[in-house]
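Sequence only, no structure available. Ideas?
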Amino acid sequence: MIKKFKLYILLAAVACSTISCLDKMPEDSIPFDDAIKTVDDVNLAVVGIYDAFKNSALYSGNLTLLPDLQADFVYGINGNTNTYGDIWRWKDILATNTSIEAVYAGLYSVINRCNFLLDRVDAVRKNTTDDNDLDQIDQCCGEAYFARALAYSELVKCFCKAYESDAEAANELGVILTRHYQGDEEMKRASLKDSYQFILDDLDRAAELLALDKDYDPATDGALFNNAIYFNEYTVYALRARVALYMKNWEDAIKYSSKVIDSGYYLLSSCTQNYTSTASYYKYMWTNDNATEIIFKVGFTIDSYGGRLGTIFFNYDFSTVRPDYVPAEWVINLYDNNDLRVSTFFLTYQTGYSHGLSWPLLIKYFGNESFVNENILHVCMPKVLRLSEQYLIRAEAYVSQSAPDYGRAGKDITALRTARYATYGGSTALSASNAMKVIEEERVKELYMEGFRLHDLKRWHDGFERKPQAQSLENGSKLKVEADDPLFVWPIPQHELDAPGSQVQPNESNK
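Reply:
I predicted one. Tokens follow.
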């Protein structure tokens, strides 16, 4: 089949909602039986799926910020606006928390859109005879299956316990699984094992439908893949590698991350080679949302964008900065002197508060320059899948398998550091005594404030401790969280538990 790459016109952002996942039909939507009758309708439905990822409760907001903010990456600063304060204080996280509710609803909104399309598409296919149109339908279905898998992968990360083994996961709570937009599916939580299997099945379908129809040359066709705002065969592999890591399936984590790394379509962005006179390739990825190592990003335009990721780190009003949160000192101290990520991520400013704190603030999300030029601050295109994560996935899988391969894991860490350091000679020596410590620290330095920390601590069974730093809020700065604390798993929103006829079981954190 001829698979065609498509450039989608991204529509207006979907507003954040707190509807139950049981409530599917918006008041202004087209009735089910009258919708999606042509191939053009199918394509527009997929555009709507991509658009749903702009929701400010998802990658351009809560879903990215809250897991790192809840853990040990930042400190609330005296005088702040208390945005996300209940999440940061940890002990105040309730089932009625609107920020968590919004994540839950936003992800199920994506799922409902996918189900709506998949339920209607067979009727369109039966009335279609043109081969190109049939191929386009298959492409759209592949994208819908991937989007559903992506949304469910985030739900299990946030609202379920860590996956330890197939046997244990069979007895742990997963999420509500829905295959259809209309139907009599039971609204109760599946097991964690079945939830992950659902994700894998969707990824298998997506891989088949999005498979390339010809061999592409990385030297000439790389631009078709990297920096993509649409799903393709390699976004499937990248997510499959991440899911395998979370399932502790080291063999698959290595297999699928290697497919991405070895494809040649993606290149780590260098911190030492300049893209412009003022920005390295790596810095340009954060200032302009463009890079050869981006596997998938949520596409924004000046007229259609999601949340403002950088607001809580700056609150810049064109005069002063009044951040709600500042980076933890231990994170900044973790970077080597040669590590150029420091100057890309952090810049010291004097804050506009009466106490005048001067501190390295997170400039990673200050904003895309094109948006800043239009006086739209702190808006960045979320980079959902990046090549550097694939190196980190593979390195961790190499050292965690039954016969650890420290040599290959060291090569992956070396490749990443070579791209990020001013100079990095030799190789990274890993052994049983230091491998996980090195990899864990590298995940902190590379993926800082990209939404991984809480879930990493949960699957590693690590706790953390906060100790006060300069001008940090008293309530929340002194905190010790033990490994496997119930709040590593977010509570199921109360409205979902209380919905008429609900059979949804709560998490331990709901109690």
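The two ends are 52 Å apart (CA to CA).
Hope that gets you unstuck.
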